[in-house]
Each structure stands twice: as C-alpha cells, then as structure tokens.
Design goal:
heterodimer, A: about 160 residues, mainly beta, 6-stranded antiparallel sheet, 5-stranded mixed sheet, 1 helix, B: about 260 residues, alpha+beta, Porin, 8-stranded antiparallel barrel, two-stranded antiparallel ribbon, 10 strands
Chain lengths: ~160, ~260
Amino acid sequence: MKNKFRILLISSTLLIFSSCLKNEICSSINIRLEAGIYNKDSNNLITGLVATKIDVDTIYAISMENNHLLLNAKQIDKIKFPLNNDTNESSFVLSFGNIKDTLHIFYDKQLYFNSIKCGVYYNYTITKIDFSTNLLQEVILTKPEINVVSAQNIQLVF
Amino acid sequence: MSFQLKIFSWFFSLVLLFSTSLTAQQTQLEDNSTRMKKSEVLLEKGKAKKQKTHFDRDLKIGWDVSNLLIGAISPKRHGLDFSIDYTIKENFYGIIEIGQNSFEQKSEVMDYYSDGQYFRLGFDSDMRKNEKDKSRDMFYLGARYAFATFEQRIENYQISSSYWPTITQSEISFRNQAHWIEAISGFKVEILKNMYLGLGLRFKFLIYQAGNEIKPAPFIPGYGKTGGALVMGINYNMYFNLPINYSKKTPKNAK
C-alpha cells in the first residue's frame, strides 16, 4: 500500500511541475500596409505597369507631423504604412520636393490574439482608398487583407 | 374466571406464535425452492449457452482533485470536476465527466479571463489480465470526446504600434465552443474498501474551436492551456465506488 501511495504522489508531483516549466518569448508583430511603387508602361500589355524606384523627402501621418515615417529616402521600391489602431482610417502625406500627395486609407479591424504575455493585435481589411493626384496618378488595390503574411496590398502609380 | 381467561390468552398467544413461525418457515422454504428452481434454470441455460462469467457492476463517482493541487501552486485556476463511470461489461467502463473551470492571468499588456463548462464522454478499458490478482486496482487505457462552452474576456488590453501611440481598451468578451478528443492512460488504486485514488495522463487533440477573435483560446475549460495541436494533461482523482452487484450471472466456478 505504501508503494502505491509513493508512486501516485511522486508521479503526480513530477507531472504538475513539468507542466509549469514554460517561458514564452514575445516577438513583435508589426502589421503594415505594403505599397509597391510603379510607373505606367505601355509596353507591358498585361498590367500596363512597371515596378520602379522613387526618392521621397518625407512621409508622415496626419496628426503625427513630427513623427516621420520616412525622411529623405532614396530609391525606394516599396513603402510600409502603419495603420492607426484607434480609428478606422489613416491618412498620410507623401512629400516629393515641393509636390505633396495625400493618401486616405479606410479599413476594418479584426482583433487577433497572440498570447496573454504578448498581447493582441489587429489585422485589417482595406475598404476604400482616396488620394490626391499631384504626382500620384493612380492607386490600385491588389490585396485588401493586411495580416502577418507579408504581401503587396496596393500599387502607387506615379 | 380470571384464571381461565389467563389460560385462554396464553394458549392463544402460543397458537399465534406457532402459526407465525410456521408461516415464516413455509415462506423460507418456498423462497429456497424458488431460488433452487431459478438456479436450476440458470444452470440449464448455462449448459445450453456459453457459460457467463460473474463480474461486479460498479458505479464509481469521482472527483478530480488536480484542480485543487494546481490551485494551491497557482491561484489563477479554479474548478470543480466530477466523473461517473459504470461497468458496461467486464473490464470495460463507460464514463461521463463534467466540470466547470475558470482561469485568469494578468500580464503587462492585458488581463485575461476564461470561464465555462465542459462535458466528456468515453470509455476506459482495464488492461490488467492477471486473474490470480484479486485486487480491484486498475491500469486502464481510454478515450474521450469532449466539448466545452466558455466565455473569454480580456480587460485593459494594450495594442502597441511602432509608429502610432499605444492604445488601451477597457474590455471585450467572446463566447466560444471547443471540441477535442483525448487518449488516456492511468491507474486507480483501491486505498480503502470502495475508495480509490487515481492518476491519469491525458493526451488532448483540439479538433475545432468555434467562436471569434480569441483564437486559439489560451485556456479552454476541461482542455487546459492551449499550446499546439497536442496538449498533455493530468488528472488526480478520488473515487467512491458504489458496488451494484445485481447481475444474475453464474459464478465462474459453477459447473
């Protein structure tokens, strides 16, 4: 009888403590809208576009004028826009020398659970895009879902 | 006159006592003869059919005390878990387990709560085949299908951004359901007559979680903490056995 008790107690204690040995390391989840830079190209019969690179003086969000997303960036082929988690729209000013364009992005948010220690995050679905056409000619929505899978969501055509 | 009355009453009492004992004897004889007839019928049936083996039909009522042990180590988890198992056939037990679990955990970025009920249905099969061993201890293998309905709630949760200010939301809650299956191995040891202690090791496979945003749920009542497709858990049970030996079957040594 004593042996039975010993086996029960030892095995249960070991199992309980072994289940507690878990140390979680949080990695940051940075979900951003990815925009590719394009020019119109009449030679491309399928899309009519060609990927290009551009110099950008500044990019910042409206209401975040002092916090530049990009500053004096040379020959960039894509821009990653972080979306505001507090609202369902984010607006960005793109400055190319003296020319400025504004991009308004409207979206729905879906809350996703990472872990208790690492928190929650939003995935987004783009519902509408408005833009000015000073240097920017067109914005094409290619993938409305913005999530942990990195992919091009819009094409900025200059 | 009074003496005659006394004699009459003694005589009447004696007659009454005698008749009562006679009736009782007759009833006992009838009972015995009925039992004899029944056993003869059983034996005849036993000869005609395959000889049946005698086994106890047990009804075990169990209480999973592992929540108490876990709660003593960490006060974040509470619950009550009960089980009922019944002998369906020799060494084979049908099991129902029900429980209510709650879990809370606070971190720098949120307060998390999960609370709900679960239900498990399955069987255990006693693997001990040593017929010489007359103890009623068990080493069993079993399987369960399990279902839980529960509410998850997160409070004071923060969503940070590398560009925008971090926002803090007050509360959001979701109703969820989960289905999973379990493979079980364990043993039950009879420590006192009809009192058992049991330890079970469970491998749980989450099949499906219905509901919304908090997926996978960090804690599912009955399933425990999620952390991949396969989760291991233990249960440490106390059982009280109600022996229900109403089975009318011939004992093994009856020939």
